[in-house]
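Bit of a strange request maybe. I'm writing a small parser for structure token strings and I need a real example to test against, not something I typed by hand. Could someone generate the tokens for this chain?
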Amino acid sequence: MVYYVKDDGNTEKMNCVYKDGNVSFETSHLSYFAISYEVPEPMPEEPAGSSNAVYYAIAVVAILIVIAAAAYFIVKRKQ
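Reply from user aminoacidic:
Good idea to test on real output. This should exercise your parser:
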């Protein structure tokens, strides 16, 4: 990004092109310009072993317990 630095210290963003390691922009006069770039924020990495597999396993076990309890009470009720 290229910014035109005005006499009062304010900046104005200018159109520019970055290609092959060079920054190009057009201006009608010589003055102070600031050239900058944005660094993308790194994506946070998941800590090792922090997957949803544990939650799925707990859910499956809970469902099996509910099914077993229901079957137990159905069989007990029929007796």
